[in-house]
Structures are given as C-alpha cells and as structure tokens.
Amino acid sequence: MEDDAWQDLIGISADPPDRRDKCEQCKRPAVVCWCPALPQPPLAVASQIVILQHPAEEKRSLRTALMLQLGLEPGKCVVYKGKRFPNHKNHAELQQIFDSPQTLVLYPSKDSVPLEEIDRSGGPYTLVLIDGTWPQAKAIYASSPALHRLRQVKLISVGTSDYIIRTQPTEGCLSTLETAAQCLAVLEAQPDLRQVLVRPLHALCKYQLDNGAVEHQSKEFLMKTNQYPKPIGKRLSRLLNQTVCGSAEKET
Fold this sequence. Notes:
Elements: H1 2-10, E1 48-53, H2 65-71, E2 77-81, H3 91-98, E3 103-106, E4 113-114, E5 126-131, H4 134-142, H5 145-148, E6 151-154, H6 176-187, H7 193-197, H8 199-210, H9 219-224, H10 234-240
Parallel strand pairs: 1-2, 1-5, 3-5, 3-6, 4-6
Helix pairs in contact: 2-6
C-alpha cells in the first residue's frame, strides 16, 4: 500500500494544471484570444518576411511575430530562432535566402538606405527582420556575417507605436508586427496594410487596458518630461541617440 501511495505521489506534476481553455491558433487563453481581429482571409502579398528571432522572445507572453504569421498567407512570414544565422538547424534554407539579390535586411547603419527609396520593380523582395531587444538585435547581427553582405535598409516614416501596454525605448521604436506591417505597406505600395495587420495588437491592448493595465509612454518621453524614475545608463543613452530603431522592441 505504501509503495502504491508513493508511486501516486511522485506521479503528480510539479506544475499546476492549466484549466483555462486555449485557442488552438494563437495558443492564448480563449478570453484573451486576438484571432477574431486577424484579417480574413489571410492577406496575400508578393513580398516575404523572414524573422530571425532571439530565443528569449519565445518566452514573452505578448510577442507579436505570431500575429504577423497568422495575418499573412502561409509561407509569407517565416520565423527562425537562434543567436547566430544561419546555424546548423536552418543553414540550407537561410543560405538560399541570403544568396538571393532580392533579399534585404532591416538594420540601421551608416550603409542602410531608406526602404522607401528601394526600386520596387526589382522585387518581389524578401525582407529580413531581427526580433529582439536592441542589444539582442545588435548581438545577432554582429555574430552573423551573412547578414553583413545583404543590402541594408531602414524605415524613415515609422509613426508611433500602438503597443501602448509595453514601454518602448524611444518614440520611433515599433514592435516586430508593426515594423513588418509598415515595411510591407511600403514594399507592396498599399498604405492600408499596416492598419489591417496590427488589428490583433489593438485588440490585445484594449483587453489589457479594460482589465487594469495602464498605458505606457516611451522611456524617451518620460525622460523629456522628467518622469523617468531611474538613472540613465550608458546603454540606454546610446540607444536614445539612434535615429532609427527598426524592430528593436520591448526594452524593459
């Protein structure tokens, strides 16, 4: 009897069971599912988005890359995870992408050119985005020589982030979803694409605000208005001096 009781005890999971119903598509609890806000049917675009995602992003509960994947036709947004690209898990697929003259990488550097100035007649293009905080994005770029050989582009007209439940580093920084949506609006010459693709983000933010979350201002805004509660470190100071943030989101 004691042996049976012991076996029953060690068979109990250390983690409490998750009894909340979850959406099969976005994997979020049904009550906070944002899938009804996705475009139906998923949008057909000529361009492709390739997201190089830092492993830490997968742990974030409010990540936005999945919204982009589900908002576009299958295959139009692909995500690869890692800290260096290509790596042993994706070398063949990514090398083919990196070797294409139609592949661009969104990265703010002295050599990057405005995406708005790219000749669209040379497309359709594949746009590579680095998904992570700004330090993570810089580390991925620095450790991935293949990215250095791609044509580098930057966004000039980024607008203000609608990801108002997350503190952005500066006023010009966007979430991964917003960055990709803005880029697609430029590459596809369809200005309304951004608004359509970010609707799930709007739905998510509305639910959070309706249930006690507060609207966040950027660190740049808080510092300009003397409301930032912490000393400014060297890393944040350098970041605030960047003119383009690209997809460097979610600094906390």
